[in-house]
């Protein structure tokens, strides 16, 4: 499959990609244990299997990721790329990107998170992400899912890793713990994520020389401060030339070097982090 994006895979390729992801879980967790030991931590104590352990673990990972910064190579020229986990090679990483060690830490964290969530949401199963269940950003991705919710576990940790690598505000251990608990609730059919699963947070339509971005209607109605904050942070991203708000839940974004899926994924992950719960 080389580095074909998940969204462009056919059914057979997506099934193979899911198998590849699952085969990488135990090695990724072993590498995380090794990184913790090298950092002077006891892997057994740090990875004690409790949901609460997510908070101090992510805080430690974030500090290490901040130290590592970004890789000096462009994605296409990074000699470490063939050794990355499959989800990073088939996903939508962008430059300047985190180095291989950061990606490995995110990979190990996703493996540990998968084990915790499996135990807390016993009806969840691994499957290929569906278009209708949580909208386009997870199409063909390896997801942990029930009838109520599906999640691609590396997504939000990778978003935070980019924040750290670029000197922006990453997710705290407390935030990651809250995200984990919300995910468990959603997979068990509880909470806002499960209730709103058929309606995506963001829709993006490519127009001539711009993108038309629609937010779920309840977002500006229930959280009026969130849209100006999203606009400010989106304007600060590399390559974004302008953002114009022409309605309560409607934006026009001029970002020539991005594609529709990248913009939608960025906005979705940002909202997942910042919307009050």
Please characterize this protein's 3D structure.
With 277 residues, the chain is of the alpha+beta class. The chain has 13 helices and seven strands. The protein has helices spanning 11-23, 25-38, 43-46, 54-68, 86-90, 100-120, 131-134, 155-165, 173-187, 191-195, 218-222, 226-235, 260-274; strands at residues 125-128, 142-145, 150-151, 202-207, 210-215, 242-247, 250-254. A hairpin with a 2-residue loop joins strand 4 (202-207) and strand 5 (210-215). The longest helix has 21 residues, at 100-120.
| Strand order of the biggest β-sheet | 4-5-7-6
Distance between the termini: 39 Å
Round the Cα radius of gyration to an integer and report it. 18 Å
| Gross morphology | globular
Mean pLDDT: 91
Number of helices: 13
Helical percentage: 40-55%
In terms of DSSP E residues, the strand content is 5-15%
Q: Give the total of beta strands.
A: 7
Q: Main sheet? A: 4 strands, antiparallel
Poorly predicted runs are none
SSE succession: HHHHHHEHEEHHHEEHHEEH
Helix-and-strand structural type: alpha+beta
Draw up the topology in text.
Layout: H1 11-23, H2 25-38, H3 43-46, H4 54-68, H5 86-90, H6 100-120, E1 125-128, H7 131-134, E2 142-145, E3 150-151, H8 155-165, H9 173-187, H10 191-195, E4 202-207, E5 210-215, H11 218-222, H12 226-235, E6 242-247, E7 250-254, H13 260-274
Antiparallel strand pairs: 1-2, 2-3, 4-5, 5-7, 6-7
Which terms summarize this structure?
3-stranded antiparallel beta sheet, 4-stranded antiparallel beta sheet, 49% helix, 277 residues, alpha+beta
